Each structure stands twice: as structure tokens, then as C-alpha cells.
Amino acid sequence: MFKRILIANRGEIAVRVIRACREMGIQTVAVYSEIDRHALHVDLADHAICIGPAKARDSYLNIENIISATVLAGAEAIHPGFGFLAENSRFAEMCRECNIAFIGPDPEVIDMMGNKSKARQIMVQAEVPVIPGIDGLLEDFKHAQRAADIIGYPVMLKASAGGGGKGIRIVRSPDDLKKAYDTAKSEAKAAFNDDSMYMEKYLEEPRHIEFQILADSYGNVIHLGERDCSIQRRNQKVIEEAPSMLLTEELRQKMGDTAVRAAKTVGYQNAGTVEFLVDKAGNFYFMEMNTRIQVEHGVTELVTGIDLVQEQIKIAAGEKLSYTQEDIKLHGHAIECRINAENPSLNFRPSPGKVNVMLWPGGNGVRLDSAIYNGYEIPPTYDSMIAKLLTYGRNREEALNKMNRALEEFVIEGIDNNIDFLFQILSHEKFIKGQFNITFIDKEFSYR
Amino acid sequence: MPNKFNFFNKKPRYIELPINPQMQQQQQKSLPPNADTAVGENGAPPAIPDGLWIKCDFCGELLYKKDFAADLKVCKNCGHHYRMNAQERLEMIVDEDTFNEFNAGLISLNPLDFDGYDKKLLALREKTGMNEAVVTGYGKIDGYDAVIGVMDSNFIMGSMGSVVGEKVTRAFEYAAEKKLPIIIFTASGGARMQEGMFSLMQMAKTSAAAGFCAQAGQLYITVLTDPTTGGVTASFAMLGDILLSEPQALIGFAGKRVGEQTIGQKLPEGFQTAEFLLEHGFIDQIVARKDMKATLAQLLALHVKN
Fold first, then answer.
1. pTM score > 0.80 for this model?
2. A4-103 belongs to CATH 3.40.50.20
3. Do B289 and B171 fall within a single domain?
4. In this complex, is the C-beta atom of B47 within 8 Å of any C-beta atom belonging to chain A?
5. Domain A207-444, what architecture?
6. Å from B96 to nearest chain A CA?
7. Alpha-carbon dihedral A365, A371, A374, A380, rounded to 10 degrees
8. If residue A334 lies in a helix (H) or strand (E), which one and from where to where?
9. What is the number of other CB atoms lying within 10 angstroms of the CB of residue B199?
10. Best mutation target, A99, A374, A376, A377, to test chain B (most B CBs within 10 A)
11. Does the complex come out with an ipTM higher than 0.90?
12. Domain span at residue B183?
């Protein structure tokens, strides 16, 4: 086992990893930018190394400095957390060249899964269902007509250079195709100077359901059930829960087996997540695979009783998985709310600043993962997520009641936060009944 | 470093990474004493291997060697175009498996019995894996046929002796005969002094060959790369129908010092750079390396009949 690990991240996830290391008797080395001098992860770690100025590019994304710090501090492994360098294959490759264990999959696998079209091809070969679409690009309008007939309406036209919602059209009938095709093309031409188009099936109101994977270096792969992350605002997850209300035991098994097969196909190692979209009829489609620990990993930990970060470290150190698929049983229900320093009524504008008073909830079934404390100054430089509040109950109702109670207790003063917004979601009838999909916030709330 | 929030009794020791290298030695001592117990993935302690990063000579940015190669030897920070050898350039420009080299076996003799020239040639042939300072041949660029010549500054500074002159001349003649466009990437310190007059006459010979090719109606594009100077500038390098250059390339005849001594004046800033030449109308366009193949393909497309 490693004696010392460097955590190449900040905030709540750095604290999370440090906690896992301390429980395992592993020394920790924190890295921090100049503005993070008084951040909690710096204080909790056994050692701390400043790696550059506040801008992420100069510090938390500064590969040279992070690797130098690792070598200087005598750490044998790097935990990348999520975000920053967590899915940077170059970084993983350099770690390997420097004889440092990267706590995550091989750089080749990160590359494979990071390239969407390549990942799609691999999944098709592994007989993992993907969203039906054309191979390659649309040649002309006639091709688009033929493709739409084969795929079946509604279809989505997408600019291949796309981004920010530009050059995307949803087409519901053959009559609308011509206009949508022309306008999407000219929009793409204007925005990206590239009007090549792609077409795939448009899923009506799907749920976002993802499966947690653990894979060791001996070819053992298991899944730890699913998380329902359909409550999203502009593709940012807001509330996650496990298990999903939507899945029957049969569908869970089928999707879990598929996720395991996907991971095995690419030779996956360490913790990862296979994301699916699930339509109303229970058809599921591979979306992407995240090659890192996820923000919402805590809900899976609560329902399985397995510490995912500790498992990550053990796998990276070459240990065999100590669980088989049969050992994994889901108990009860867990919910996570992401607490952000932002103002929902001002279009969710980030609200950095000093936390004057903070009183955090506790009690039976409540877990708080955070890196803020009384008097902490939240820097404007990084992500606005400041805490993850999780509750656990024997069933969904119990977990929800605890979440409502815990949010009520939560006091953060000095900065704006989204707790009221979370209350609104939690008390929404459709949320309580579990009748939601990824369009929920867009459709049901005035500010989005 | 003062610590305002004292959460734990056993306080961590703080390490500040040295900003300047002088501090490094001193810092090493105050580091946590774990280095000797640390063991990496395969038993050895973590260490940064030599040459993992290259430091840009111009902006100081550290470049990962694999990224640097993937970026075609261009600094991702300041955009400086580092010199490429002929092989790298052919890989960058010519479609895979389409290049057929001409006259690969031609090697220089030592017509003047110049002291040490034979030895030098032998050593360079071994070191660079090339027989001379230019590679010529036929290949495809995005599907368009072309005769291609690439000079390599690693071989006696790309200097033009009898073999370089002969290979370039034959390439022109081939282009004229087969009705093909010709593209030459120049990189040279000038005529090869070890071959004296034999070198100087290559200037006239290659210029005449370029003229012959032009009379045959063939397109000739030169791509001036760092450095293109002396007798090569004064002959075929500047005779292209279209003159392209890489950014910041040094292009000139005599060096700056010689120029200043001759005319007794200070030379303007940026004199003999590609940018200066473009501004003064000597070349047609500066093309970044990443766009070079596409630009050449476009020019070829415009000049292909039908």
C-alpha cells in the first residue's frame, strides 16, 4: 500500500480524499494555489505545497508543478479527484513516465472514452445500445431525409462542430425537416464556420441514470447499482439519488450487466461511471463513460456501504477487489443536494465571499461533505459548489424527510446560496412522486 | 507561513516550491523525510526522467515532449516554429505511403581535397541517416500529385554542394517533363564552402533549371523555412511562382553583421525575418505549420487543370 499520496485537487473532493487516506493510515500531501492558502484541504493534509497563482491554469492545471511537487514530497501516487486533471490522459501518461501511480484508469482508456465518436464505436461493437444515429456525417438533404426515415421521428440535427446549443434542431415530422436542416446548417456555418451535420434519434424526456463501476487490475469488474441524476439545470446536476424510482430489479440487472460489459470491453481499471439515458418505455442508451470519481459518489456509498475512494486507492495499489457482484446489495435510499454559492434569482450568479456564520446540519442519516467553515473566504476563481448534503433513510420518503429537515437546519450567512431553490424542488409534487426527467427544472421552474 | 486557522495540534509542515532554481538546493533539505521510503509503481521511487519536458528557448514555457511532437514542433505558448528535419517535414506534408524518393544514393565527393570533408560527410550520413542535405521525390499532397524537395539544416547547415544542386536540378527537370507542380522547402546556410567553385556554379545551374521548369509551364512553390540564406536564397529559393514562409523564419543573403559593415548603417529591427519580408513585398504569405499542408493542397487544387 502507498505510504503517501498527493491530492491534485481542492475543495470538498480534496477533503474527501484526505479523509479516506487518514482512515487508511496513508499520509497526504495537499497542493494549493496562492488564493487557497487558508483552504480546509491545506490544513487537513499532513503536508501542503503551493503550486502557483490563483488561476487554475497556473496551479491546479499546472502539470509540471504538480508532478514536481509529487516527486519532491516523496509521494508515490496522485489522486486527481474530479475536474481539473482528472480526465487528462496526458497527465496520466506523465505520471506513468515518472513512476507515479495515477489513481484512475490508464491514459489509453481515458483517451478512448474521452473521444465521443470513438467511444460510441467501441460501444456498438460491444453491443451496448447507443442512441440511434447515422455513421459519419450527413452528405446532403436527401441523405437527411433517408436517415430520418430509418431512425424514426423525432430526430435531432446536430452541428458536428457544435457547442452551446448552436446548430441544433429537433425535428418532429418530415414536413419540418427541410427548414430545420437549412437553418441549422446556416447557423452552424455562421457560428463555427463548419456546417457539417450529424443526425440522431431525439429522446423525449429521458431520465439520466448512471451506473457506478469498480474494476481491479485482474479483470474483475462489478457494478454498485445506479444513481438517478435527472434533476439538472443546464446539464449541471442539482439533486441525485440512489436507487432510481424508475428501475425494476430486472432492468437494473440488465443495465448493470451492460455497464460491466462496457467497462470490460475497454479494459477499464479503477472507479468509473457509465451514463445512460432511459426513455419512458425503459429503453436505455449509452451516453458516455466518466473515467473518474463523480461528485455524487456519496449516494452510492450510502446505499452500498462501500467507501469508493478507499477502493480507488486499493485498486491503484494493485489490490484485488474484495467484493463480488453477489456481495453488492442496495439497502435503503440516499439523496444528495449540491449546495452552491450562487443566487438563483440573479440567474444563478456565483456568490463568492466570506462565510460569516455557518451552522451545519447533523443527526441520524445525515452526511455533509464540505470544505467551508466559519470565517472562510470563498474565492471567486473556482467552482461555486461549496457542500454536498446527503441523507439516508430506509426508503425514499424517509430520506426526503431527513433532507427537508437537514436543509432547514443549514445556516450559511454572508454569501448567497441555493438552499431555497432546493427546497422548492424537494416540495414539488412531481419530484415527490418521482415523476421527473431531465427537462424537469426547465419546465417546472421560472428561473432556470 | 502564518496559519490563521489552527485545526489540529500536530501542524503540517509547509513546503513552498522554489520559483527560481537557486532556491531548489536549499529547499530539498527542508522536505519531509519520506523520499527514501517512497516506492513507485515498479519498485523505484517516483522521479522525473530526463527530457520529459523541453523548455522553449524563446518564452521559457515547459513543453511535454509528446505534445511538442504532436504540435509539429511549435511552442504551444509563444508559437515559435522550431526547425524540422526532412523526414518530419515529409511526414507532415505528404500523404502516407505516397512518397517515392529520387536519387537517394547520390553522395558528394571531395573535389578540392578539402581537409576533413570526407570524414565530416561520413559522420553526418551516419548521424542523420541521410546521404545529403536535400531529399527530393514525388508524392501526393491531399491527393494532388507534386514533385517535392525538402532541405535539412542538420546536414552541414543545409549547404548546397554539387549533390544538392544536382538533386534540385533533376527534380525541376522531372517536374517539367512529367508536367507536375514542384514544391521546395528551403533551409540552408548557403553554398557549401568545402566544394568551392563547384558549389557556386550550382546557383546558376539550379536557377536555369527553375527557368526551364517555368518555360514548361509548371507551377513552382517555395516554402522558405528557418534559415534560408546565402547562395540558396540567391538562386532557386527566391524564384518560386509563389513564395511562402514559416513564421519568424530567418531569410536573407548575407548575415546582419556583414550587411551593416558593408553599407555602414544600422539595419532596421526585424530585418531578414519572414514578417519583415512580407511587409516589404518579397514573399507572398506566411503560413503557420499547422496550416501548411492545407494551404499547399489548396494552391495545387487551384492550379490543376480541370
1. yes
2. yes
3. yes
4. yes
5. 2-Layer Sandwich (3.30)
6. 22
7. -130
8. strand A333-340
9. 22
10. A99
11. no
12. 83-303
